[in-house]
Amino acid sequence: MIPEDVYAVLRAHGFARENLAKQSRRLLAMQFYQDRLLSLGQAARFAGMSRWEFVEFLSEHDATVIDYHEEELDEEFAAVEALKAD
Question: pTM of the full predicted structure?
C-alpha cells in the first residue's frame, strides 16, 4: 500500500495507481532477473511482457541482458573453438 501523502505527490506528477503497479512489477521483474532468481522468460512473464519487450525494457534501463560469469564465458568460447576445429 502506498502512503496517501506519497501517492498524492506521485499523482501530481501524472502517476495513477494502475501505472505504479505496472511499473513496480516490471522493475521487480528486472531485479529478480538481475539477481538470477528468474530466467529471462520467467521475468518477462512476471512483468506482463513478451521476451523481446522485456529485453527492450532492460536495455532502456541500462540493465545487462546477457550476463555470463567468467567460467561460463570461457566454456562458450571453448565450445566455439571446438566447432571451428571440426
Answer: 0.70
